[in-house]
Amino acid sequence: MKPIDFSQQNTVFCDSLEALEWAYNSGLPRSASIKTSSPALLWNNNSNIQNIEARWNVEELKKFQSSIQNLSEDIFNAAINVKDIGRERALSVSRSAVIFHNVLYKAACLEEDDFNNSRLCICVNGKSGPSGNKLNPPWGSLMSSNELLTTAHYTLSDDKWDVLNTQEISYWRRYKLAGFETMVYRFLVKLMNKLPDWLFKKKVFIPNENELIIETAAHLMLKGVKVVELKGIPEKNEEEVLSVNYEKLCDAITPIINQRVREWVVPSAVNPTILLFKKSMHKDLLQFEELIKYWDEILTNSGKMKQAVLMNAPGNIKGQALSYICSKKSMPLIAAQHGVTIEISKLHGEVSVIFDNSVSDAVLTYNIKNLENSNKSYFSKAKQYVVGASARHIRMSNIKTSGNQSILPIVYISTHVYRGNLGMFVTWNSDYVRGKKEQKLVINVLRKLPHKVRYKTYPEDNRRYSDHDPVLNDVADSKNIELFDKKIDMRYLLSEHKVIVTSIATSTLGWPVMSGMPVVFINRKEKNPLTSEAHVSLSKGLFVFDDDDNDFYHKLRVFLSQPISEIEKLWEEKKDAREEMIRKYFSAYLSGSGRRAAKIIMQEYL
């Protein structure tokens, strides 16, 4: 391959500071124009470094994000009407279209000049988590028609990346939260794996787990149900052939995708963007074929034994293929909620195609609001049962603040995660704007508090950008803030604090709320905000601050600057309203969820 003459390049696509410095050292002129999405590159306002996402303002992103749901429904309708596609494959195609918006978003950042003039793309290789290397936008594929396009590859040095773990949490601490049900589950599942099926009359398969599934399974085992964990995934078969008419499927959905793409990208980007979608959809359909063969082989019918599947988050290709096989074998697929989000998130309709109730026959939910909101989804098909949150959530109320006087009284649980090339939207801000908003919170509020504060980073598994988040530099430079960036779940750390601050409508909120400790919630109106109804209820039960209010930073800073005892007093005054809020939005019951769920499964499905 011909060596790259970096000195002749004047427009570069790059999302890595380290890779850019390598390019400079290889001869790239420092006067070259750098196009990037990376907050680390954009942070210092270098005039040669341009925000490629600057074409997106709040109104444009709002229009883009809020129309994804309708598109997913249109794609589903077109696909399901194609002969032999069926519901599960149609859901898979619709899901592919939703996820593909990450590519469409990037494609919309390109200009006509990018397809006709000299361009250099710098791609990086490095550790990135379970989803693989997602550090590079698909610039090369999108601009493949440009004969003046050059691609350079750089491997990150001293590359490190960790995922969520409990290695630094003591066994006793984990057991106190996990509880007796988890011990029963871990022991009996190993024992039952060694016992023959003829000893049992009922069986439940578990492809993956969450807190409620573990507790439900434990009670099923104690009722004599054999529980079998399904481990592993099928090996990829490159020779796989689709069993459906792919051409007719493309004919059905292409007009919808074509219209969508043309609405957002320049003319030269239309065809390569549509081609990328088709390749992605084809790849997903091949995976669907592999998975249905895999599930068909391992979900064996055992005579007259009654069987069911209990699954966490089945709204992906794995769950869609499993639903297809379960339907063929007349085996109920039951999903169990794994966190509070649908109940409170205003923008979550974007991903309604992957809601639990889109593929399962039944869903075990925490509360009535989850049932009501998820039932409104266009893709809803499941019967839903309110059983309450997991016992682990309920046990959070038993945690006691450490008596150690050196504890940090306030913890800020950051939910600040960049989208990069893989996250869902549920926001109307670019990554750079999101980073700047987080920086303002650190500088204008947390840094100015009279209390010691712990800044707990979000333990993301999949890497978005290769560089250090520049927001953390401001955290590290703050004398009263301790940066905690270990990949440890916050549920194990809550007892080390007295007041909890967090933001945006995600499942993270459930753990602090159930702890009973004072919770200050920042409602970001342009990033996964609360629904109007949830806002009313949560404002009564928690301390809610809206980031679009006048003097937002001042109001939040004044509130958090109070003595901790005063905040606790104000918190106690909200007790009655909070109990009602918890019942509606977090857990309808405060005990017995696993037992209740097991009883429903035994009576209705086994």
Q: Report low-confidence residues grouped into runs of 5 or more.
A: none
**CATH overall fold name of the largest domain:** Rossmann fold
Gyration radius over CA:
25 Å
Helix content: 40-55%
Q: Output the CATH homologous superfamily of the largest domain.
A: Glycogen Phosphorylase B
Tally of extended strands? 17
So how many helices?
Answer: 22
| The CATH architecture of the largest domain | 3-Layer(aba) Sandwich
- Strand portion, in percent? 5-15%
- In total, the number of domains comes to 3
Shape: globular
Main β-sheet, spatial strand arrangement: 7-6-8-9-10-11
Mean pLDDT: 94
The CATH top-level class label of the largest domain? Alpha Beta
Distance between the termini: 63 Å
Largest sheet: 6 strands, parallel
Main structural class: alpha/beta
What does this structure look like?
- With 606 residues, this protein is α/β, with parallel strands linked by helices.
- It has 3 domains: 6-155; 182-236 and 288-391 and 590-604, 3-Layer(aba) Sandwich (Rossmann fold), CATH 3.40.50; 394-585, 3-Layer(aba) Sandwich (Rossmann fold).
- It is built from 22 helices and 17 strands.
- The chain has helices spanning 17-25, 39-42, 58-66, 68-80, 86-99, 101-107, 139-142, 171-193, 211-222, 246-264, 267-298, 317-328, 368-375, 391-395, 431-444, 471-476, 510-515, 532-541, 552-560, 564-572, 575-585, 593-604, and strands at 11-13, 33-36, 49-51, 119-125, 149-155, 202-206, 226-229, 306-312, 333-336, 362-365, 383-386, 410-413, 453-456, 481-484, 499-503, 519-523, 543-546.
- The strands form 3 sheets. Strands 7-6-8-9-10-11 form a 6-stranded parallel β-sheet, with helices on both faces.
- Helix 18 packs antiparallel against helix 21.
- The termini are far apart.
- The model has no long low-confidence stretch (mean pLDDT 94).
